[in-house]
Amino acid sequence: MACILLPCLATLLALALFLKLLLKFKNISSKPHPPGPPGWPLVGNIFDLGEVPHQTLHKLQARYGPVIRLKLGTINTIVVQSSEVAAELFKKHDLTFASRKVLDSMTALGYNRGSLAFAAYGEYWRKVRRICTVEFLVMKRLNESIPIRRRCVDGLVDRINSVVERSEDPIIELNSFLFLAAFNAVGNILLSEEVMRTKLDEKGEFFEAFLKFVECLGKPNVVDCFPFLKWLDPQGIRRNTGKYLERWIRFASGIVSDRIRERESGVGMKKNDFLDALLDEGEVNQDGPDKLSLKNITIVLLEMFLGGTETTGTTIEWGMAELLRHPSSMEKIQEEIDRVVGRTRRVEEDDLTQMPYLQATVKEILRLHPSVQMLLPRNSMEDTELMDYFVPKDTQLLVNAWAIHRDPTVWPDPLSFKPERFLDADVDFRGQHFHLIPFGSGRRSCVGVNLGHRMVGLTLASLLQVFDWKLAGGLEPEELDMREMVGLTLRRKVPLKVIPCLRE
């Protein structure tokens, strides 16, 4: 009897499971798609986005609501533009959207397979993220690297001061100074000061290859909307990305190989930096899908440079622009620094916790000028629903952080620069409060959020402690051009030119 009943029960169980899945699919797929503009034949909504897509999409919200459906060429896309929708997304559907929609340029030389930001959701991604969050970018490691950040910010101040001393009218383009300081800080933390200085002094090819790589990634690519053109690479973006990526890998591989030989021969003390953490993990597991190959290690290093320099420099530049437009806010920060630190010593990271107005200012900068205005694109791994809308599998998801940060239902007077709004508000920027998500949220949030925040705060405080600032060209604060330029990050369309003057 049992021999007869068991197969029958198994069949009934399988049938019940099938019917349950069928009903679930029917219930989900019967829901409406999100609303959105109709689009054009073949190209869809590509030409509806304009030159500054995040601003255009923000305007469309008034007509179509906080969840908008687009057709970008052949790519189904939905855009999230409110904190309410972001909360449902990251709380209920984070796993469903844990995959990435990989840009074509990111596939050059298999970059996406070694990347943390663009790797497929799986064993390799989990391993690299664990190294970043548990082995390296933890509070203990960040505290150990305080002297490195202090030296690099001191170097930034000294370089600006040397310009001031040499010229009666010292006009500087601030971003170039900020970028180099952030690059040096990240390089020292990842690879140790001695190694980084040696390699940079040779020919500066690390720096050059990095800048060209960033430039390629920021270019709009028609293949991202029409994947069937991938074989053609009509704009040559993937080819150029691969060219500069190959140069980076070649130089970084030299550094990694040197470190491996040092470890094997026992020459010198272990540096316990990020490279050592990657190599330690690579030695433990040398096979399998989560293998950290030499190439993958160089790609992870590049990505850490990318996240730690481009975003940091851009954020500080926007911050200085806002403070120059609002001199009273700059004066309040300088008064706070003088009260807490004085002028006989430089600001230290430990001092920042005693500067609530500076901390509020950093949050306001991140609100108005998130360095990544549209969080890196995600991809739905299965049919799902969001806010009672049907979202089919393999749909690209964009989160318009720029729009969320300007939501008038959440932020009073959202377009104004008002650090005071954060003085009595318990609002964090690490992804738990969904109306302020400059670093994303959930599984795919930025791993370097704490490092970036420390670097921004220390740099701003140091620049304002040592110098007074005014706009170049005799510009009045209200005349400063605040237009945005879309690329890999949200840069200023017109670089900020300023005149520093030593404070008396």
From TrEMBL:
Pathway where it operates: Flavonoid metabolism
Q: Which InterPro entries match?
A: Cyt_P450, Cyt_P450_CS, Cyt_P450_E_grp-I, Cyt_P450_sf
Sorted keywords for this record are: Heme, Iron, Metal-binding, Monooxygenase, Oxidoreductase
Q: Which reaction does it catalyse?
A: apigenin 4',7-dimethyl ether + reduced [NADPH--hemoprotein reductase] + O2 = ladanein + oxidized [NADPH--hemoprotein reductase] + H2O + H(+); genkwanin + reduced [NADPH--hemoprotein reductase] + O2 = scutellarein 7-methyl ether + oxidized [NADPH--hemoprotein reductase] + H2O; (2S)-sakuranetin + reduced [NADPH--hemoprotein reductase] + O2 = (2S)-7-methylcarthamidin + oxidized [NADPH--hemoprotein reductase] + H2O + H(+); (2S)-naringenin 4',7-dimethyl ether + reduced [NADPH--hemoprotein reductase] + O2 = (2S)-carthamidin-4',7-dimethyl ether + oxidized [NADPH--hemoprotein reductase] + H2O + H(+)
Q: What subcellular compartments does it reside in?
A: Membrane
Q: How does it sit in the membrane?
A: Single-pass membrane protein
Q: Which cofactor does it need?
A: heme
Q: What is its main location?
A: membrane
Q: Where does heme bind?
A: C446
The record's GO CC annotations read: membrane
A molecular function annotated in GO for this UniProt entry is: iron ion binding
The Swiss-Prot or TrEMBL record describes its family as follows: Belongs to the cytochrome P450 family.
The name under which this protein is listed is: Flavonoid-6-hydroxylase
